[in-house]
Amino acid sequence: MVLLLVSFVITLFTKINEGEEYMKIVRAMKQVSRLQGEIKELKKRMSAALSTMEENDFLEDFHSLKETLYEKINELMTLKTKIMMANINGGKFSTILAMGELKSYISFLKELDPKEGIQESRYSLNSNNSKYKSQLTIASKNSLIEDCQQLINDYTDELDEFNAITDLEEGEVVIKRFNL
Description:
Layout: H1 2-17, H2 25-49, H3 62-89, H4 93-111, E1 117-120, E2 129-132, H5 138-165
């Protein structure tokens, strides 16, 4: 245990002295956004370069753009894999899953239309009024949505703190290469 700690301290000291710094998750997430933007732009350029009038030259080489796209996609998958691994190793992956499920539940709750009291029928030819009762009031529905949103906010704060202080692990990750 002591040997492992000493090894870690020496590695950390060496990295600091060499001016190297491991990438934090928050920085990696910004890089993911940049890569997604670059990929979107490459796809637009590929669409524009695909065809031209027979007497014109192509503005860009489609196949070269395709190779660049594959490289960017592979870089993106590697970075996302490292982020996911850091979240799993840090015990935060279940928090991320919970946030997704809470967001889905909020969407479901927003779609619910609890009816109470006398309601005019929209589909009847005569003016029939029907009296409804609901197992969920609008106020309780809104309260559920607020509670879920507060939990999402708490989880987001927790993840923001984790992402700001957690390094991505160095080393290779195995991904299914995007190369056709």
